[in-house]
Amino acid sequence: MSDSGGPDVTQELRPPWDEDPDDLYEHAPCGYLTTLPDGTIVRVNQTFLSWTGFTRGELVGHRRFRDLLTSGGQIYHETHYAPLLRMQDEVHELAFDVVCADGRQLPTLVNSVLGRDDEGRPKAIRTMVFNATERRQYEKELLLARQIAEASERRVRVLQQIVADLAAAPTEAEVAEAVVRAPESAFGAASSSIYLVDPERDTIYAVASTDPTTGNWDDMPRSSQRAVARVAERGDLHVVGSVAEARQHFPDLVDSMRRSGRNTVVLLPLTTGPADDQAGVETLGVLAFSFKGERLLSDGELRVVRLLGQQAGQALDRARLYDDARRREERATFLAETTRSLDELHRLLRRTRRLVERVVPEIADWAEVRLHVGSAPVVEDSGGPRPDEELLLQRLGKVAASGEPVFPSETDQLDCSVLPLTARGLVLGTLALRMAPDRRGAAAERAFLVELADRAGLALENARLYEQERQIARTLQRSLLAGDLPGGDNRFAVETHYQAATQDLEVGGDWFDAFLISKDKLAVVVGDVVGRGIEAATTMGQLRSAVRALASNENGPAQLIEGLDRFVERVESARMATVAYVEIDLAAGEVAYSCAGHLPPLLQEPAGSPEYLLQARSAALGSKAGNRVRTEHRRRLPAGSRLLLYTDGLIERRTRPIDKGFEMLAREYARRRDAPLQGLAAGLADTLVGRDHTDDVCMLCLTLGTEERIERSIGADRMQIALLRADLRAWLVAHDVEPECRDAVLLACSEAVANAIEHGYRDDPFGMIDVVATVTDDAVEVRVTDRGTWRGPVTDVSRGRGLQLIRESMDQVLFDRSDGTTVTMRRGRREA
Amino acid sequence: MEFTRGGRPVPMGQLERWVTFSTFGDADLVSLTGEIDLANAPEIGKAIVQRLQKSGKVLIDLTTVSFLDSAGVRLLDALIGDLDDHAIPTRLVVGETGAARMTLQLCAFREDVLATDLDRAAADLTG
Known about the structure:
The complex is a heterodimer. By secondary structure, chain A is an alpha+beta fold.
């Protein structure tokens, strides 16, 4: 304060109390040390003593500054502090921990100045010591925070990776695989295992482990006292910190922890949501992981562990839904395909077979369908091994009686599901199958099987009805077609042939008929009714009756067809039916014909080429748009003429134009002009249609008049002998040849042909044999010719007997072996 | 399904068309019918041999056979020979006339095994 009353800023301000320099030194807010160049403390202030708890006497002259430092500090002192001080004469803010009298460490910051004497030699070191406790604490915290952040970041990275893996894991197995790897990378666990909950069976089962040598992998009920089941039940994380803790809470863990040297086990429920959100949270599994040594998990780690549990739980949930959806889709596809596949086949047996083949191996390793239709049950099975027969039969009986499916229980000795095949409330049969063991979704599988059985039942019932209707239609058709045809008249012979489509189509409407209108007038007809099945067969019968009723000695074919036109006005199902109708005047050798929309008859006269009868054509019966002017055409036919009536199945094929069909038929017909009448139609059908025909074929072949001379060519086939014999017999009968002579000629001719087959053509199955027979009032002469090879005298006893029979039964026999073999045989008629 | 009136050869395996088995008294009765020839005789023979393994007496009825050729004769010949070897009494029943009788006669078949009706044939075997 100046006298002038104003402050004198040029002068040092005087403190309000006496500032004693000693006191300032002793109680300064920092520690002061003065040491010799070697660090020996020579002076120290009170502040430093107070901080460190030393007495002045303990330090001055006795300790060096560095003696007060931690061992790390001492090293730092040597390597940094001392050299720096010597070089720069001062150091600033070096951090040292000073070890206090009581062993406490006092974090400090130190500034030192090296004082030198006049000659520049170090004289003394003045050191100022700041208390850095607060600051060091702060630094430590910073460091710790950084470490925590780093660890957490690593875990988060691991977790992110796992979450990404989980998102890409579409199945439970893949989710389990991703989750089971997590604890090792995220927390350094020694091993981990994953268990899943099976709500259907109320069990928990292990699915994956990084170390399958530890632990107990048996399935456990959810109510089990085992640690995994308890944690799953509670739905919250549990850390077993030591073996002692395990002994107290989860004794089941003690053994495996001991054996595998684990001290900490974490049991993490895999849940669909956070544990505190109790409503709607479901535990889908448990992740168990363990550490060697006791491992304390930080709060941060525990948070991440819980997060992992939720992520994994949600992924499992997703996978289950996805699994379910995919399975449902697969099952739906399977059902649709099965239905379609069954629809492809109409016949009951084939449909049943296909059902069994669909089921095995796709959904079952063994299956059997048993149908109680008809007198004997239809049984089809596939796969294996078959279950115990007695148990199965009992079960089948039970299901058939109750109409309710039975699924095997856990303890069932019969590990098969048995379902009734029902349709329209009736049990048609049973479907028994053993599915591959499937751990879950049993309810869904049951629903699927029930649906499969429902569909199969309906499909099989339809096949059964189809079969029944087909049987009725076939029987009906057969009774209509196989009725007595006129015969025993040597002025004509009729041969018919009918073959149903080989494929599973319904009965067609093809039909034929032949009847005598009067003693001398024969009618033959072939027709085709629109449609298939019972209705077609019925219509066919009505039309057939109508033709018989309308045919008369007076009206010709044209009037008959007109009558049919009127008939179809009343019988609608016969509309658009086609008919080829032929009347034969047996006395005059004249035919009259008319075709209503039907294919033209084919005529083969004894000489010349076959000819289609293309006159007198008009539209199908009852046709509204076509030409309904019915006409007829007449022509004389020489004896030996053959007339063929047929339906479109014989010549129409999808793969060839109809012209080609006509051409082929004419060619084949001509080629067989000398073939026996019997078997002629069947032979034509074989050649033109083959075995794989999609349409019915109906044929009627008529031979007119009696040939004076019969010529036949047959293949070297023992089956053909009977056909030839039938023709020859009819011819002999027509010529009133006496029975004894007839039998003798038939025997000799048969033996000669047999000889040609067995001897002449023994190396040539395609050889042809020509037979020519003539009859006069006095004798019958037969010539049998083959072009086979003659190999010397017959040694075969049986053939010898054949030749003997020829000689015995005929009057004259001549063998000519100049070119093949020709046997000429003659038998007189009057002898006997 | 196929059916043809008349002549289509019926596949083998439908032998019952030509041969059926029954008993007549204490004898096994083999009834043949229709046309027996080269085409079916071997199969018919096999079927008969199979059936007659343990017979005591055998009657073979040919009365409804409408045709018999040398292959049929061969079959009967072998059959009779075989049965004779095993000392099994046998008779062939053939009508007074007819195709079978004619063929057998033409072959000079052993008359002692032929009979004209079943009752007589059965009596022969018992006597």
